[in-house]
Amino acid sequence: xxxxxxxxxxxxxxxxxxLGYARALAKEGANVMINGFGDRDAxxxxxxxxxxxxxxxxxxxxxxxxxxxxxRDMVADCTAQLGAPDILINNAGIxxxxxxxxxxxxxxxxxxxxxxxxxxxxxxxxxxxxxxxGWGRVINTGSMHSLVASPFKxxxxxxxHGLSGFTKTVALEVATQGITVNNICPGxxxxxxxxxxxPDTMKTRGLTRDQVINDVLLANQPQKQFVQVEQLAALxxxxxxxxxxxxxxxxxxxxxxxxxx
Length: 261
Prior knowledge:
Blueprint: E1 7-10, H1 16-27, E2 31-35, H2 40-54, E3 58-61, H3 68-81, E4 87-90, H4 105-133, E5 136-141, H5 154-173, E6 179-186, H6 192-205, H7 209-217, H8 229-239, E7 251-254
Parallel strand pairs: 1-2, 1-4, 2-3, 4-5, 5-6, 6-7
Helix pairs in contact: 1-2, 1-8, 3-4, 4-5, 6-7
């Protein structure tokens, strides 16, 4: 349990990729604070599961990632109850699919706030304690859309590209202070976020569900398979090891070959 005594804060972690990160870190002994929305009984079950796996602390924050004050309070609560975050994973995200000239302005604002601005607010709040300790890991969940674009996802592409630039900038700022900052860039992973965008894509493109999966989602993913949550969690875990201390400021593609094309 090489993370025993460390504390991890993971946004957007009550399902999907974020919950996978939390489970992997807890198994290595980390205190974990998860965050997101969902059924409270299920979330309480995840907290109990994480605590049992780690033999350490686990907590839940319902902080809204569109509200900077709640984000700051979440980091403060984590610090008070579990210890200042040694590992910060910015994973919160939403999606909306529409042509740019029909894209609802409130959806644009929400996508950028939850994916990009929240990462700024969490990182700003967490870095001082990491600097004081001389050790930290900031891991952002980007996307192949941090590197390449797809139509009808203007806000998501803009936010994920922005996250890539933010990752590089912060990595340079803290490069001599024992802190690494990296951006994991998955291809399509079978999560609620992906599943929930299928109806919009069906409507926008006039396709069946199977056509969306095979001809849109996996069309440019050469392995023709969805990336698995466990694969992303394993990479995040490696980035927390000392062996990964020279890996910083990078976009790490886990996309079945998507961005190799």
